């Protein structure tokens, strides 16, 4: 698919976008609406999987989605965010970002105002239904802003400025088992937290 993107209905529920290994290619634009996949409104139970997204401003842009799953997705050459996930800090939600590849992008995975609940997989001490796990990232890291109960585990992050950046009261973040190489500034940058 050339120079196109996918956007769901703002009230969609139970939707699966399975790319089956296909590629969505953009124009490399920095325009405000230039997203490979946009999930907006009050969507719930949306899955994005097995897709290659290339040359967009944002690879995946999700706003106010509940129970979002992103797996098996490759984002290449996003000029802004590979994955920009924005929520409501007053609402608990589930978000799973696992087994993805991000490369050649300005920013990696960023969560803003995402509030998790329940438990992080394995023997992790803090509750979390928000998982950023087993992703491979080159040139872009993981960032949290005002996002609580997030599990960041078993990711491989290379060649970034700040590999994992946790700020603005992103409390109860559980960071475990990540492999970080060649951070230019900080492997883990923590600012304004109560618990980590």
List its traits.
44% strand, 196 residues, seven-stranded parallel β-sheet, single chain, eight-stranded parallel β-sheet, mainly beta, globular
Task: Explain what you see.
By secondary structure, the protein is an all-beta fold. It contains no helices and 22 strands. The strands form 3 sheets. It has an 8-stranded parallel beta sheet, with no helix packed on it. It is globular.
Mean pLDDT, to the nearest integer, reads 84
Strand order of the largest sheet: 1-4-7-10-13-16-19-22
Fraction in helix: under 10%
Let me know the largest β-sheet. 8 strands, parallel
Structural class assignment = mainly beta
* Strand-residue proportion: 35-45%
What is the H-and-E element order? EEEEEEEEEEEEEEEEEEEEEE
Counting DSSP E segments of at least 2 residues, the number of strands comes to: 22
Give the low-confidence spans.
none
First CA to last CA: what distance?
A: 42 Å
- Helix count equals 0
Radius of gyration: 15 Å
Shape field: globular
List the helices and strands and how they pair.
Layout: E1 6-7, E2 16-18, E3 23-25, E4 35-39, E5 47-49, E6 52-54, E7 58-63, E8 68-71, E9 74-76, E10 81-86, E11 95-98, E12 101-103, E13 107-112, E14 130-133, E15 136-138, E16 142-145, E17 150-153, E18 156-158, E19 162-167, E20 174-176, E21 179-181, E22 186-190
Parallel strand pairs: 1-4, 2-5, 3-6, 4-7, 5-8, 6-9, 7-10, 8-11, 9-12, 10-13, 11-14, 12-15, 13-16, 14-17, 15-18, 16-19, 17-20, 18-21, 19-22
């Amino acid at each position: 698919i050339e120079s196109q993107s996918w956007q769901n209905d703002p009230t969609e529920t139970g939707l699966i976008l399975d790319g089956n290994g296909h590629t969505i290619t953009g124009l490399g634009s920095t325009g405000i609406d230039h997203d490979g996949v946009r999930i907006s409104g009050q969507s719930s139970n949306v899955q994005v999987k097995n897709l290659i997204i290339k040359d967009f401003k944002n690879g995946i842009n999700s706003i106010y989605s509940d129970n979002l799953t992103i797996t098996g997705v490759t984002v290449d050459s996003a000029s802004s965010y590979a994955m920009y996930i924005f929520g409501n800090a007053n609402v608990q939600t589930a978000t799973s970002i696992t087994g993805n590849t991000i490369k050649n992008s300005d920013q990696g995975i960023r969560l803003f105002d995402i509030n998790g609940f329940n438990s992080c997989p394995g023997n992790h001490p803090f509750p979390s239904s928000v998982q950023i796990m087993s992703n491979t990232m080159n040139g872009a890291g993981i960032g949290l802003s005002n996002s609580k109960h997030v599990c960041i585990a078993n990711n491989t992050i290379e060649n970034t400025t700040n590999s994992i950046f946790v700020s603005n009261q992103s409390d109860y973040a559980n960071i475990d088992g990540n492999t970080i190489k060649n951070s230019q500034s900080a492997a883990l940058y923590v600012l304004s937290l109560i618990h980590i």
